[in-house]
Amino acid sequence: MAGSEPWQPLGDPGPVREAYRIAYLQLADAEIRLDGVRARRGLSTDQLDALAARQPERSFGDLSDELVSLTKVVEALGGHVEVRAVFDDETITLLREPAPEPAPPPEPEPTPSDD
User: Fold this and answer.
1) What domain range includes position 71?
2) Would residue 8 count as lying in a domain?
């Protein structure tokens, strides 16, 4: 088109992309742990899908703005927000915001000196 600016790629979104990556990793880990719960309960994936399809719809998506605001308040007060799956015998954290800091790498073992 005449007079239009050439397309420019978007800049690196920086921390936003990293936050989504961290959330994705948390959710991927939660899926693996939930699959273990499914297996321990003796359900096939097809059986679980059929049971899940019968569960009522929830309106958590409608609460997203409120959850973001509450998360900011909780963080400002020094806390964090978690989404957890709670069973009679087990609790699995699905998502934690802010994500826990990664553990520092272990200290290297000292090498014997040639004294």
Assistant:
1) 15-53+64-97
2) no
Over 90: is that where the pLDDT of 44 sits?
A: yes
Domain count of the chain? 1
Between CA 88 and CA 93, with CA 91 as vertex, the angle to 5 degrees is: 155
CA distance 26 to 32: 10
DSSP 83: E
What does the block give as tokens for 77?
């007060």
Give the predicted TM-score (pTM) of the model. 0.61
Which residue type, as a one-letter code, is found at position 34?
L
As a whole number of Å, the end-to-end CA separation of the chain is 77
Provide the sign of the torsion angle of the four alpha carbons 83, 85, 86, 92, taken in this order: negative
